[in-house]
Specification:
This protein has one domain. α1 crosses α2 and α4 crosses α5. The longest helix is centred in the first third of the chain and has 52 residues. The protein is about 75% helix and about 0% strand. With about 300 residues, it is an all-alpha fold. The protein contains eleven helices and no strands. It is globular, with a radius of gyration of 18 Å. The two termini are about 25 Å apart.
Length: about 300
Amino acid sequence: MREKLFLVLANLFWAGNYVIGKSIIAETGPFWLTLIRWCAAFIVLAPVSYWLERPRYQDIIKQYWLPLAAAGILGVIGYNLLLYDALAYTSPMNAAIVNSLNPAIIVVLSYALLRERLSKTNIAGFLLSLAGVLFILTDGHIAHVFRMNYNRGDLMMLAAGVVWALYSIIGKKLPVPPITATTCSVFFSLLLLWPFAFFYPFPADHISAAGLAGLVYICLFPSILSFLFWNISVQKVGPSHAGVYLNLIAVFTAVITFLLGGALSVLQLAGGAIVLFGVYLATKAPKVKTEQVDIAG
């Protein structure tokens, strides 16, 4: 019962990242929001990973520095920059719905790159979830898919999904405990990000009190607590069962958007329902054991 509550809370906090991140990027920009978020996360994750997993950091980094650095480039830098940049052009609801395609993308790329089993149901589910995303991107006119200009933010979220899938595949093959792997990946990503700080002046004079509160939320809840709740739960219920809960991100984003006075269109709700059902089919597969679990936000 505790693990189910933790999984619900983890995805609730990740949903808040979409809504609150949308407002904060106007003040900080995608670069500084990403850098601040993961600096704060690293300060907490490093001692937590040592306390829970007792890793030998020197040996792990020496042996697995390349996949850990690749995971940092993809999952920490690439995904987050694409996510926050996308939120400058699209709504949190659209971003969350397009992001719901991620489990299906992971299934397909796992088949292509790792030769994991893929059934006809999986293929049908992926195609259905893709149709749901196209339904949203084309405002319900899928026939216009090849003759219209898409929202830049929605397309960036599709790219973010591919980046996250590649990151997840690396994680599946990496024999390093999950909190330690993420801590090391964040470490490498920060090494790569900090030199660029000289080219992006920190907008301290533009951050409002609400912006500071939002930064605290993003650093604490989706970056630290969600990750800890997720990994504690996965140790008990397994990655396949926990993965089903990722679909709650779109649901919670819709609820938060509505509670804050935002509008939800019938097309968004219909497209989201199609995506979620397609993801259910795409991930309804012969279960494959994985060595690593990834976060989603």
